[in-house]
Every structure is written in C-alpha cells, then in structure tokens.
Amino acid sequence: MLGPFVNALVIAVCSLAGCFAVRGIPERFEEIIKKAIGLSIVYVGIKGALDNQRILLLIMSMVVGAVLGELINIDRLMNRFGSWAESRLGMKGGAFSKGFVSASVLFCTGSMAIVGSMQSGLQNNHEILFAKSVLDGSISLVFAASMGVGVLFSAVPVFLYQGGIVLASLAVKDLLAPDIIREMSAVGSLVVAAIGFNFLSVKEIRVANLIPAIFIPWVWMAVEGALPK
After folding, report:
1. CB of 121 closer than 8 Å to CB of 165
2. Model-level pTM?
3. Alpha-carbon torsion 86, 98, 116, 159, what sign?
4. What is the reported pLDDT for 144?
5. How confident is the prediction for the chain on average, in pLDDT?
6. In whole angstroms, what is the distance from residue 82 CA to residue 103 CA?
C-alpha cells in the first residue's frame, strides 16, 4: 500500500500549499511544468514497456485492446461521469464540491492509477504511482490555488480507489504466472507513455480506450497454456 499512500499524501500536501502558499501561478510556469511531467511519464512508460519479451503479443494486445476500448468508448463514459458528478455535486456545494469532484475524477480515472496500482500489488513496484504522485501533486497545487480546500479532500478517494486495486491484484496474484504479469505490465506501461504524449500536446490520444489492452496478454496466455502442446 506504499504507492497509494504516497500518492494520497503528496496530493494532500500540495493541495495545502496551493491553498495557503501559492496564489496565481503564471501560465508560463504551468505550461513548462506540464511539459516536464509529460517527458518524465513518457520515460517511465517506455522504460516499463521495454521489459516485454513478446513483441508480437504486445502489438496484438494494443490493437485488440484499442478496438475493444473504442467499441465500449471508455473515454466517453469517464467524461460523462465527470460531467454528471460536477453537475450533481459541484453546483450544490459551490467551490468546495467543485474542487473535490474535479480533482477526484481526474486523479482516479486515469490509466496510471489502474496500471500503477496493479504493479504495486503484483510486483511491489511503485514506480508508476510515484511518477503519478509528482503529476497529481503539480495539478493539485494549481487546482487548490484556484478552487480551494476541496481539492485536498480528493486524497481520500484516491487512496481508497488505488488501495482497492492493490488489494484486488494481491487476491488474484496466485492466478497470474510471472510471465503473464510481465507482459501485462509492459502493455500497461506503453499505455502510460501515451499519457505523457498527451501532456506534451503531440497528438491527443484517448488513453482510457486503451485500458482493455492491459488484460489481453492474460487472456491470450491463459488460452495458450490450455492448448495441448
């Protein structure tokens, strides 16, 4: 649970700084920080993807997962949920609810939260969640400066959500062979790299629609293992 704990703690500390120490961050600083974070995320994602030992499986997983994600349109569902949450809560509670809901949706619905929490549970590898902590901390600093203390309380759902994924991953860990975990993590890391490219504004990628790709190696290798040799 180290990864989720650090992530929630960084959000809380940076939100406090945003509320009481930072006022009116110049736009040029926001932009350069965003680019620096984007480059770091691309590095973390590609570094993890290089652990892959079955390139064709990685490519197939990305393609099949992208098609499934696009059919389901996960990205649109997440955006609709965010809009619904803001309309139901943000308007009633003013600035506090708006900051809380906006930050919670943003920090919880990204693929970094899913992939990072899975790696924390399956491999005791907190690298992605630590990288996410830097990203979330920077965003919460800016959000809290403009939307107030509600952003601080988003640390609670972030910890519960990511901690739940860690525990769920531990529960099924015995069903996942090391080579399956390796390939799933590699695909997930490549999805994480796409988030970095979005932050660099290279070309907007609907990253949420790539999430199903993470689970394709599990299905493929399970079927492969069941076939007669």
Report:
1. yes
2. 0.67
3. negative
4. 81
5. 79
6. 10
The pLDDT assigned to 5 comes to 92
Report CA dihedral (183, 186, 192, 194) to the nearest 10 degrees: -100
- How many Cα neighbours within 13 Å face the side chain of 16? 6
State the Rg of the chain over Cα: 18
**Alpha helix positions (H), the chain:** 2-20, 27-49, 55-72, 74-85, 91-108, 111-123, 127-147, 155-171, 178-199, 216-226
Three-point CA angle 184, 198, 91, nearest 5°: 105
Between CA 107 and CA 158 the distance in angstroms is 7
Buried/exposed code over 59-94 (b: 16+ C-beta within 10 A; e: otherwise): ebbbebbbebbeeeebbeebeeebeebeeebbeeee
Q: In this structure, are residues 10 and 135 in contact, taking their beta carbons and an 8 Å threshold?
A: no
Q: Are 226 and 68 in contact (CB under 8 A)?
A: no
